[in-house]
Amino acid sequence: MSLSLKKQTNISLSFFLIAAVIGLFLRFLFIADVEVDFKYFLHAHSHVALMGWVYLAMLVLIRLCFFDTKKNKKQYNGIFVFTLITVVGMLCSFPFQGYAAISITFSTLFLFASYWFYWFFIKHASKQTRQLHSYRILKYALIYMLISSIGPWAVGGVMATLGSGSVWYRIAIYFYLHFQYNAWIILGLIGIFVYVLEHKGILIEKKAIKVFLMYFNSGLILTFFLSILFIEPHGIYYILSIAGGALQLVSLYYIKEAIPDLKTKVKQIFSHLEFTLLKWVSILLLIKFVIQFFAGFKPIADLITNYKNLTIGFLHWTFLGVITLSLFVLLSYFKLIKINKAVIYFYALGFLLTEALIFWRPISFIFNLDFSIPQYILLFVASLLLVIGILIIMLKQFTKKI
């Protein structure tokens, strides 16, 4: 099967729409009595969003940036199609059985597909790109992708021995999420962004990039301890978590230092809408790192443990905000998707409303606020806005005018 990069992008975007529709259905379950297993559909939602939308879109961008698209085309298409089959398998199995034989099989095959792509990247990346700073950043990102897979492998062992009620089960899940959301995807997006600048002939300061990677990688390892604070470990782990958050905050400064006059140069390369979105992504990313820093302090860590919505809100902040908006910008820059202000307003409104409503319940409990709102109905409406925004982008893929 031969698929153009545009068709591959449409496939990944279709999975995003499917994940959003499943998310909308999950919101509906809070306001209507429907006899389905909530967790089964939640697993389908998270796997399709992360592996169908984000992973496949990242594959397309990495292929476009770091490879000669005329070479090794058959092998790359094989990787994409094999990965696609595993995602479809998860989509068709998780809603009906949750974690069971079929879904676990497809999830395991997906891990092998990711290993295959890593090997393909290391072996076939073009000679020109191997000299770029962006290649080095992407290489780290993909290594973190491999490391994250330890989590799913550990989950199987923990379930077979200690059961899903074990604290180690949660730690294994958090390990996977940490190295996915905070490592491979974020660093991968930064690497692709740096590639765009390098491709345009913009000078990148080598020393600043090295320092950025040093702080980012060190902070990334230490912020993993945020994932175990729910067990209230020894105080040293809180200190390490705070130190990790501080290091990652500092790393952002060195990205700016690596590219002198960054704002002016980015404004020249990207369209006005893409530049505006990048500014918002920068703000959202900064807030993400600030949240991680403060999450290491015990009073806040305890709040996060006691109020699950804080964790859900943070994950959506990262996924729907930082990651998805970055993908919109990069895919738009490479002419793989079409976006305009109306679409982005729809999506942004849905994103901001869902975040506000998700955070509302824990905030109202924490500050003892009596003002009540029909949260679940409003969440359903806000999620509907997200679905409409993604649907419009999908429809625009098949029209000539933006």
Automatic annotation (TrEMBL):
Keywords: Membrane, Transmembrane, Transmembrane helix. It comes from the Bacteria. The chain crosses the membrane at residues 12-32, 44-66, 78-96, 102-121, 142-169, 175-197, 209-230, 236-255, 276-294, 314-334, 346-367, 373-395. The keyword Transmembrane applies. This is Cytochrome C and Quinol oxidase polypeptide I. It comes from Psychroflexus halocasei. The lineage of its organism: Bacteria, Pseudomonadati, Bacteroidota, Flavobacteriia, Flavobacteriales.
